[in-house]
DNA sequence: AACATAGTGTAGCGCATGCTACAAAATAAA
DNA sequence: TTTATTTTGTAGCATGCGCTACACTATGTT
């Protein structure tokens, strides 16, 4: 392996790109915006990401999953009270001020903001991961039987997803976080 | 009133603009796209809509409301079974194939796809109109008391909105309309 | 007929976009 | 030291964007 060595940390640069993509959305984040935030120039940018912005965004979605949903999913796997963890996650989305999800859901935004089928497919994948994990966690909860009697389990993922993506839009309408939290509490009562 | 007379029908042109905006979204509908669909040139376009694309879209949102939500709201005001009407409206959004809402919700799309505060404020306004009308209609329904006991009425608009905007995104994930209809049925059981 | 007014068609400006081309610089292997 | 390889910085292309400028045409008023 010969050649000059990179003057930037790839992962750090990816994290900075996430900041820009999250705030502005895929389409509105220009390659120049991204390069500035990542602290690199065009040359390095198109060397590291040969397919440009799209490739960077795909990698940023993977990285985002490691940073945010994965720790949650890991916690869910071992928790005795998964519902409380899930509730806090929904709260974070409803709470526009919070440090997480200040700009909404990274993946749901992608789903509604771009027409790129490749990116939408990836976003779908990550959202499904979370919804399926929620379903599995609550199926293992002590009071699962009661919940099952109310709603068939194959509808649980679509139930979570609709609530999640709904909140992602409704938070732009209803600015009172308390009311959104009340709605979340009501919807999650299904699993109590 | 002197001067040459218009060679196109303003309302027809507006309807064509809606087609383009609905399919492509505000940002992705270029002024040239719109002019072509409306059958007019730059000159007529910027004479009729001095503030350009933004003004056209604002007017298209008003026109859209007259075309689609208003008839629904009128029907709700007099119906003895408002829940059935509401259910069909949700079905139409879930059913990606249907003639209406083939490209999702005109207003919810605006809310998540653009950063223009002026347009978002207008979109919020129209969505609220519908959610409030749903609430009023169901409060007048014969079995309103039972529904009230389950969920406080001030949460009804946010309940409708979250389901609506949620479906608007979930339809991009879950392509089986039957499953979405099952979810709608379950959510609307609150008002039975 | 003369004039003012409203609508139409065309040329093109200034800007931002994603991306390529390519020379210069740095590093490891020979 | 030479060579091959990798990274970096800069110049700039082609395209599409929203929009303006302006001459031209059609119409109503005087």
UniProtKB/TrEMBL annotation, chains A, B:
<keyword id="KW-0805">Transcription regulation</keyword>
<dbReference type="InterPro" id="IPR036271">
    <property type="entry name" value="Tet_transcr_reg_TetR-rel_C_sf"/>
</dbReference>
<feature type="domain" description="HTH tetR-type">
    <location>
        <begin position="14"/>
        <end position="58"/>
    </location>
</feature>
<protein>
    <submittedName>
        <fullName>TetR/AcrR family transcriptional regulator</fullName>
    </submittedName>
</protein>
<keyword id="KW-0804">Transcription</keyword>
<dbReference type="InterPro" id="IPR009057">
    <property type="entry name" value="Homeodomain-like_sf"/>
</dbReference>
<keyword id="KW-0238">DNA-binding</keyword>
<dbReference type="GO" id="GO:0003677">
    <property type="term" value="F:DNA binding"/>
</dbReference>
<dbReference type="Pfam" id="PF00440">
    <property type="entry name" value="TetR_N"/>
</dbReference>
<dbReference type="InterPro" id="IPR001647">
    <property type="entry name" value="HTH_TetR"/>
</dbReference>
